[in-house]
Task: structure prediction
Amino acid sequence: MSKLVTADYAASLIKDGMSVGMGGFVGFGTPEEALVAIEKRYLETGEPKNLTVFHGAGIGDGKDRGMNHMGHEGLIKRLVCAHVGLAPKLGQLCMENKVECFILPQGVCSHILRATAGRKPGLVTHVGLKTYADPRVEACKGNEAARQSGHEVVQLLQVDGKDYLFYKSVPLDICFIRGTYADETGNVSMVKEGLHGDQLEMAMATRNSGGIVVVQVEKMVQKGSLPVKDIKIPSFMVDYIVEAKPENHPQSFMGPDYRPELTGEIYIPLDAIEPMPLNPRKICGRRGAMLLKKGAVVNLGIGVAEAIAAVAGEEGVADQITLSIESGVLGGVPTGGLGIGGTVNPESIVKQPDTFDFYDGGGLDMAFLGLAEVDEKGNVNVSKFGGRMVGPGGFINITQNAKVVGFCGTFTAGKMKWEIKDGKLNIIEDAPNIKFKKAVEQITYSGEYGVETGQTVYYITERALFKLVPGGMKLLEIAPGVDLQKDILDKMEFTPIMDEEIKVMDEKIFTDALMNLSFEE
Result:
């Protein structure tokens, strides 16, 4: 019997109350054709209802695609994932407590799939201790509906006198994942995918749960025509294949065209790098880049942290570090926006769960990520704002385990008027919103845990550099031209630890000329 079915038929396999796994990383690996069909069926028939949906990375374009197709009241009862910010329609239902929302670290989601595949009760890990994921804090519960549900996804336990978290496995009744080609028996290749994610692990978890595995592909091909080394999901794990329309099978949500330079099929010459304009973002990037070490394996987050890669490129030292993305891509030049997770000219592409093994074990030398809110204990929040749960993505796995962490962002939030002249920064009119709080809204990074584990942690802004120390945050440097009291202390809800003499940042950070950056060994 042929495994090839329509997307509508695949959607009809979902019954009320099922547990559904969904593959994807923003737009990479997202089974859009299947999601369109699921939405269509629900709007036409009111079925299926009350689903539990499990996915790891955020899936969506911030508008209509990805998990936004499932943002209809009644379709989902419980959501278990690492990021919902790219699916505002679904996020709104969580905000309104119409969906129970449980938000886990992204690496935990990947590793839960492996645990489920192995028929294990769950995952034991240190990841999430003393963050909102910890049962002593918020227990991964992203809204009141989750808190009132009586459902628990994580427990605290001790092994040899040490605290760990136990995240429960999530058996799956059906999953929807994606590849490039499938042969007539169901073998699946991913040759045109920008990353491999945790598609194999989701297939294994679903099969060993007794569930149904549906794979969306670009095209079905003849048996035996796929090179064996290209097959990433073997046929016996696959129940059904869906051939997608081209518009529902983009390589990513960046655009409709296939870009072979994202898969390693070809390598393209990179145009001469246009220098970033000298602005607060670049100042943060320059100060962060000065912390880099030659040969380091580095994870760079989105936002201001991306400026570090730009500065390293301008300074001609980018080839002296290895960039790693939690999606499993190593090397190359990261793609931003809706291309998050991929890189141009990657050196290698491995699976996401394997990457998180490397991260969780302390393999990252350095990581630079965003700074939305920080408090006097060094805690950082990037996952919840104004009561709206967004989720951490891979932030917790990365920041808890990298040897050196730099949280990067402007000192205040909102529109700011500034001037950089003669090697000095002048704050003409500050942004209105304070980011250095007495207490953060949610603990995505625990300063207490960082001190306990001996991490080196910096908080990098355009006007001040802080370091995590026992007892809180210490102010190390201020930008030339800023007023300590007016521009820094008055814009904080707490007083940092300070020496009598505070160092002034190097003026070369505040000029248009290259810094002639060289790395420490």
